[in-house]
Amino acid sequence: MGRARRFQWPLLLLWAAAAGPGTGQEVQTENVTVAEGGVAEITCRLHQYDGSIVVIQNPARQTLFFNGTRALKDERFQLEEFSPRRVRIRLSDARLEDEGGYFCQLYTEDTHHQIATLTVLVAPENPVVEVREQAVEGGEVELSCLVPRSRPAAVLRWYRDRKELKGVSSGQENGKVWSVASTVRFRVDRKDDGGIVICEAQNQALPSGHSKQTQYVLDVQYSPTARIHASQAVVREGDTLVLTCAVTGNPRPNQIRWNRGNESLPERAEAVGETLTLPGLVSADNGTYTCEAANKHGHARALYVLVVYDPGAVVEAQTSVPYAIVGGILALLVFLIICVLVGMVWCSVRQKGSYLTHEASGLDEQGEAREAFLNGSDGHKRKEEFFI
Question: Does the structure show a pLDDT above 80 at 291?
Answer without folding.
Answer: yes
